[in-house]
Design goal:
Blueprint: E1 2-4, H1 7-19, E2 24-29, H2 35-47, E3 50-55, H3 75-84, E4 89-91, H4 95-98, H5 120-123, H6 127-142, E5 146-150, H7 154-167, E6 172-176, E7 179-180, H8 196-201, H9 204-217, H10 223-234, E8 240-249, E9 261-271, E10 274-284, E11 290-297, E12 302-306
Parallel strand pairs: 1-4, 2-3, 2-5, 3-4, 5-6, 7-11
Antiparallel strand pairs: 8-9, 9-10, 10-11, 11-12
Helix pairs in contact: 6-7, 9-10
The protein binds adenosine monophosphate (AMP).
């Protein structure tokens, strides 16, 4: 495992690997690794000669007053994880390395219109510009064949897919299953900032999605009723403040009336000072049958239902 902080060193290292014919799998992250990150590293490891992980807490995707300063950091634990997962290169650039004009914001940014606006974009204006900009830059620096993203961040995945399609970037984007704790809480670096009481309350998002999944499996196809049930359960927890519960198409993220095709049911809530997101994918086939994908548990159990 080699640790690199400079873009120039990264380029030299990867150029020579590419010249030798190596295929590069890339996992962009903000660190404080957990099983969700590990699952992406494993997917990359299984398919590529060289696995590159970037660890950069990107200030551009945090708004004023958000948790940039409180974002969990664990450099020692992270090194152990990348070693255990057989990662070849850990790229940990500083802010000035990624944004040469720093502390001035970069003059060139990437905006993926429409997909960046709803869901998390409503409460976090500019967030997805920060994400799209850093991902475009990291793709340029790493030059991967394939990049791995978690479906936990479904809107981010949609934004990145569209960015790659619109700019014709030569990268295949792979979406990997959402990984959960055994009580259903979606793994997130931010979970480290929950005190025990809040940690218990945080499962409300999973409970809300499960209630929605049960409804769909019972035959419900009305998106409004599904949304209301999910929102009701999610508001039924004193320590959690629901930000949104939405039912949208997975590709264009636009609201739906009747469930059909691939549907994203997405929720976000604040528990204490910690903002949490979660989602499930409902697939309704032309014959009217539905399946629900809630991801996988850390033990590897698949959480889905089909009828
Ligand atoms: P982050 O470090 O939070 O920016 O996440 C880096 C990558 O890990 C992103 O592609 C996330 O979608 C993915 N990820 C984070 N949490 C999970 C999870 N619970 N399951 C699957 N992927 C995840």
């Amino acid at each position: 495992m080699i640790l690199l902080e400079s873009a120039a060193d990264l380029r030299v290292h990867l150029d020579s690997a590419r010249r030798g014919g190596a295929s590069i799998g890339f996992v962009p992250t903000m660190g404080a690794f957990h099983e969700g990150h590990r699952s992406l590293m494993r997917a990359a490891r299984a398919a590529h000669d060289l696995v590159v992980v970037s660890l950069f807490v990107n200030p551009l995707q945090f708004g004023p007053g958000e948790d940039l300063d409180r974002y969990p950091r664990d450099p020692t634990g992270d090194l152990e994880v990348v070693r255990e997962e057989g990662v070849d290169v850990l790229f940990t650039p500083g802010v000035a390395e990624m944004y040469p004009g720093h502390p001035e914001p970069p003059l060139t940014t990437v905006h993926v219109a429409s997909l960046s606006e709803g869901l998390c974009g409503t409460g976090r204006p500019g967030h997805f510009d920060g994400v799209a900009t850093v991902v475009a830059k990291l793709f340029a620096l790493v030059g991967p064949c394939t990049a791995y993203f978690g479906r936990k961040d479904a809107q981010q995945l949609a934004v990145v897919r569209r960015l790659v399609a619109d700019l014709g970037l030569p990268v295949e984007v792979v979406g990997c299953p959402l990984v959960r704790e055994s009580d259903g809480l979606a793994l997130s670096s931010r979970n480290r900032n929950l005190i025990p009481e809040q940690r218990r309350a945080a499962t409300v998002l999973y409970r809300a999605l499960r209630a929605g999944a049960d409804l769909v499996m019972g035959g419900e196809r009305d998106a409004g009723r599904l949304r209301r049930v999910v929102a009701n359960v999610a508001t039924n927890e004193e320590l959690a403040r629901l930000e949104y519960a939405e039912v949208v198409g997975t590709g264009d993220l636009s609201p739906m009336e009747t469930l059909s095709g691939e549907v994203l049911v997405a929720v976000a809530a604040r528990v204490g000072g910690v903002r949490l997101i979660d989602n499930m994918t409902v697939t309704v086939k032309a014959d009217g049958t539905a399946s629900v994908d809630l991801g996988v548990m850390t033990e590897g159990e698949v959480v889905c239902a089909a009828r």
